[in-house]
Amino acid sequence: NGEPIDDSTTFQRVTGGSGLEGRWVSTSVNPGSPLIIEFIPAGEDRLTFRQPAWEVVCEARLDGQDYPCVTPLGPGWTMAMTRAGTPELAMVLKKDAKPVLNMTFRVSEDGSTLTQISETIGTNEKTRIVYDRQ
After folding, report:
1. Alpha-carbon span 134 to 84, nearest angstrom
2. CA dihedral over 57, 127, 83, 88, signed as positive or negative
3. Residue 126 phi/psi, 5° resolution?
4. What is the mean pLDDT of residues 36-56?
5. What ranges make up the beta strands (E) of the chain?
6. What mean pLDDT is reported for the chain?
7. How many CB atoms are closer than 10 A to CB 118?
8. What are the φ/ψ torsions at residue 62 (nearest 5 degrees)?
9. pTM score, two decimals?
10. Tens digit of pLDDT for each residue in 16-30?
11. Cα-flanking dihedrals φ and ψ of residue 46, to 5°?
């Protein structure tokens, strides 16, 4: 929406020498504003995924096929969504038909939290984010 985002992340070098080159792992993440995601029903067996701060919108059927995303990063981004179980949703983000990120979303039994597990393709690194229902 054009508003500034003031996030802070601290990284620690795990490989490489001096300078920028090397592998870095985050040790602390402090979002300056809440990261909001939305899942909006878009008809029978369809969902729209929105991340307003990053201007990402993906509408897809829950059939595992690729559907285009609207993003300021340009064309070629797609998303495939499938039900991974109740209450789970699996998503694969791709760039130019190449998988980039696997995500699984799971709603808590009481419906108060949503847990996102993400894994960047080609690494063994996973990220876990827990969202509170608003």
Report:
1. 24
2. negative
3. -120, 150
4. 88
5. 8-15, 23-30, 38-41, 46-51, 56-61, 67-70, 77-85, 88-95, 98-107, 113-120, 126-132
6. 86
7. 16
8. -90, 50
9. 0.74
10. 888 888 888 777 777
11. -130, 145
